[in-house]
């Protein structure tokens, strides 16, 4: 049983849910506490950040990081799921030209209102939208404010266009396919989707699910866990070394720290920001400063 805390940068294959992927890892390595940041659809592949142990408390911070996707829209048909898995709802013979697509995607930069797909994990009166949809319950989805930092065309053919997008929290690529197609006076759905980056989690440092399971056949401990602090970007961090400080924090007590040794603190009002305390690469506490006094809000020891 592994008692470590930290991150696995998993590359999830197609045709498996995010939940099933982490459940397999949990059983193979006998992990008590495990969670993932940012669900990937079963038909999607790519980066799935997995938190081990008390790093699960850090998942909300990963969820706020920008995500990069490579995806393909097939033009001419809209489906019930806005991807290739669903039933065709509407069809059109109008196939957009590359120049028309380029003109339209400029309108999607920045903050936009987006209605999530009806087959999604969004909760409607306490129930998941995908469950209501599966049970043929009629319901309306409310638009959400989402952010696109960059969107570009990678490749274009007669009935398909491939894109790369950098977007913020809560963004649905499937919704973009649906909305962009309608803007172009046609219909469209996602036919391939890969998440290539989540904050500091990227393809280069990821491990395939099959490779991770092979490790599980030969050893009980995972040897590819990143320290919990290593994947948190642009945070105010402070390394503590004194055993007394660690003990005090474990009991929820405040400790004194040297403000000048906080990383990334230049020109930032640190009194209003979360401070992350670390020890040997692992986050041990998150809290606020009152002068030089650190007051813990979350304990990860």
Q: Could you explain how this protein is built, in words?
A:
- The strands form four sheets. Strands 1, 2, 3, 4, 7, 10, 11, 12, 13 and 14 form a ten-stranded mixed β-sheet that branches.
- The mean pLDDT is 91.
- The chain folds into three domains: 6-64 and 200-218, 2-Layer Sandwich (Pseudouridine synthase), CATH 3.30.2350; 67-198, Pseudouridine synthase (2-Layer Sandwich); 236-299, Roll (Archaeosine Trna-guanine Transglycosylase, Chain: A, domain 4).
- It has helices spanning 18-29, 59-63, 98-105, 129-134, 173-183, 209-218, 243-250, and strands at residues 6-12, 34-36, 45-52, 67-75, 77-79, 88-91, 110-114, 123-124, 127-128, 144-156, 160-167, 188-198, 201-202, 207-208, 236-239, 255-256, 275-279, 282-290, 293-299.
- The protein is globular, with a radius of gyration of 22 Å.
- It has 301 residues and is an alpha+beta fold.
List the helices and strands and how they pair.
Layout: E1 6-12, H1 18-29, E2 34-36, E3 45-52, H2 59-63, E4 67-75, E5 77-79, E6 88-91, H3 98-105, E7 110-114, E8 123-124, E9 127-128, H4 129-134, E10 144-156, E11 160-167, H5 173-183, E12 188-198, E13 201-202, E14 207-208, H6 209-218, E15 236-239, H7 243-250, E16 255-256, E17 275-279, E18 282-290, E19 293-299
Parallel strand pairs: 1-14, 3-12, 15-17
Antiparallel strand pairs: 1-3, 2-3, 4-11, 4-12, 5-6, 7-10, 8-9, 10-11, 12-13, 16-19, 17-18, 18-19
Helix pairs in contact: 1-6
């Amino acid at each position: 049983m592994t008692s470590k805390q930290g991150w696995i940068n998993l590359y999830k294959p197609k045709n498996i849910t995010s939940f099933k992927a982490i459940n397999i890892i949990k059983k193979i390595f006998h992990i008590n506490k495990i969670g993932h940041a940012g669900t990937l659809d079963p038909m999607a592949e790519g980066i799935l950040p997995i938190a081990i142990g008390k790093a699960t408390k850090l998942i909300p911070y990963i969820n706020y990081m920008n995500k990069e996707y490579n995806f393909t829209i097939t033009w001419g048909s809209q489906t019930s799921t806005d991807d290739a898995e669903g039933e065709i709802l509407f069809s059109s013979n109008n196939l957009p030209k590359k120049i028309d697509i380029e003109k339209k995607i400029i309108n999607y930069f920045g903050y936009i209102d987006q209605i999530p797909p009806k087959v999604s994990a969004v909760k409607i009166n306490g129930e998941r939208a995908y469950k209501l949809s599966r049970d043929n319950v009629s319901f309306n989805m409310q638009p959400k404010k989402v952010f696109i930092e960059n969107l570009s065309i990678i490749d274009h053919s007669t009935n398909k266009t491939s894109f790369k997008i950098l977007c913020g929290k809560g963004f649905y690529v499937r919704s973009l396919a649906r909305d962009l197609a309608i803007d172009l006076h046609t219909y469209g759905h996602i036919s391939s989707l890969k998440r290539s980056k989540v904050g500091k989690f990227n393809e280069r440092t990821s491990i395939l699910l099959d490779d991770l399971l092979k490790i599980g056949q030969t050893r009980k401990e995972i040897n590819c866990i990143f320290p919990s602090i290593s994947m948190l970007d642009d945070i105010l961090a402070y390394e503590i070394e004194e055993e007394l400080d660690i003990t005090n924090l474990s009991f929820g007590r405040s400790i004194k720290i040297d403000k000048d040794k906080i990383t990334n603190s230049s020109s930032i009002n640190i009194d209003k920001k979360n401070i992350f305390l670390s020890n040997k690469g692992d986050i041990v506490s998150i809290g606020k400063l009152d002068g030089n006094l650190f007051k813990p809000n979350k304990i990860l020891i």
